């Protein structure tokens, strides 16, 4: 590969970053809890609409600087979700072909979003084969498999470089409790929790990291018992982006102080209640995060503790218009969300 091409590719990604503003940290009122403040890091405001914009940028820079990607490399990922959308965006920026390997059952709006950014779709019938198929396509095309689940934790600069953790602490600086008692996030690749957990320890903050995990996810079971590495067949979370059937290589349990399992119905109830308060729809994993925050808030209040909690608004509700935000889909889902919505509405209003 020519160094000139590489330099130009890196420049384009850095220029995109340089043109971008930081994502907002939004304070959410807790009218019944005077001494406790709740904040949402709004990752929906990235150019591709989710926290996966950060991951895609890091994966591309990592692969470029390793000289794994050149001017004629076909870039491949196993993802039906937000990662493929963000990666398609960066591939297009660099003039590279991008193929997303997706389960055949993937919802049409997501495929549309990948195609909108110029990505191609390679559908497979058995969802478990997406990793192997992505690897095979990379071999056949002489391409590069970005492999988010392996590289998420190491592609991100966890010590700083304005990663999500450094940004949160900088934005908290003028708050009543600038060092959060808790930061709460979910785990899909595990990359975000690894970055935040490492950063907290590196900077020697007292903050604790809590990961909110769907009940039907292996991560919280693995956290409790390192021998648990895979869920039984057919056991799956309904919350997109988080909760995995296998322990992903980027999941770093050692930097997590606590995990809270959350029922899918409660995630969607919390998602709906938060949407009402914010005046705009959010995604399901944001509801999962909020549900775990509510538990921590109740515990802090019971102990008479004061302090702040920061969590993530991972993506907006637009991509879930015909699932979580469709009353017919919700009714058919069999998920019990109404009780959780009422409970969360009580906390926020
Ligand atoms: C990927 C994702 C997460 C989890 O982030 P990781 O860094 O992959 O663990 C949470 N919510 C949404 C919507 C996501 O797409």
Automatic annotation (TrEMBL):
Would the keyword ATP-binding turn up in this protein's UniProt record? no
> Which terms are listed as keywords in the entry?
Cytoplasm, Lyase, Pyridoxal phosphate, Transferase
Q: What is its EC number?
A: 4.4.1.1
Give every Tryptophan synthase beta chain-like PALP domain span: 23-315
| SUPFAM superfamilies, per the entry | Tryptophan synthase beta subunit-like PLP-dependent enzymes (SSF53686)
Which Gene Ontology terms cover its molecular function? cysteine synthase activity
Identification of the protein by name: L-cysteine desulfhydrase Cds1
Please tell me the species this chain comes from: Sphingomonas endophytica
């Amino acid at each position: 590969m020519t160094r000139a091409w590489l330099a130009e590719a890196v420049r384009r990604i850095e220029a995109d970053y340089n043109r971008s503003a930081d994502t907002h940290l939004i304070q959410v009122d807790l009218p019944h809890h005077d001494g406790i403040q709740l904040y949402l890091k709004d990752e929906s405001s990235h150019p591709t609409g989710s926290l996966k914009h950060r991951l895609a940028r890091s994966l591309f820079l990592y692969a470029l600087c390793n000289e794994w990607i050149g001017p004629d490399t076909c870039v491949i990922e196993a993802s039906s979700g937000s990662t493929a959308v963000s990666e398609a965006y960066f591939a297009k920026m660099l003039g590279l072909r991008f193929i997303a390997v997706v389960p055949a059952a993937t919802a049409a709006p997501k495929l549309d979003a990948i195609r909108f950014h110029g990505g191609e779709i390679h559908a497979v019938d058995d969802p478990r084969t997406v990793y192997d198929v992505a690897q095979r396509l990379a071999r056949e095309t002489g391409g590069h498999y970005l492999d988010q689940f392996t590289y998420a934790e190491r592609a991100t600069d966890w010590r700083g470089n304005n990663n999500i953790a450094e940004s949160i602490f900088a934005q908290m600086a003028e708050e009543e409790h600038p060092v959060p008692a808790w930061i709460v996030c979910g785990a899909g690749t595990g990359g975000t929790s690894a970055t935040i957990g490492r950063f907290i320890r590196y900077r020697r903050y007292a903050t604790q990291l809590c990961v909110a995990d769907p009940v039907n996810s292996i991560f919280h079971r693995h956290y409790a018992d390192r021998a648990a590495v895979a869920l039984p067949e057919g056991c799956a979370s309904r919350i997109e982006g988080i909760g995995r059937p296998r322990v992903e290589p980027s999941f770093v349990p050692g930097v997590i102080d606590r995990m809270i399992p959350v029922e899918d119905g409660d995630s969607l109830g919390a998602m709906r209640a938060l949407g009402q308060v914010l005046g705009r729809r959010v995604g399901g994993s944001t509801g999962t995060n909020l549900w775990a925050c509510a538990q921590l808030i109740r515990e802090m209040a019971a102990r008479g503790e004061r302090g702040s909690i920061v969590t993530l608004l991972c993506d907006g509700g637009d991509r879930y218009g015909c699932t979580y935000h469709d009353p017919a889909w919700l009714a058919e889902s069999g998920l019990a969300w109404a009780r959780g919505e009422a409970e969360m509405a009580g906390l926020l209003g």
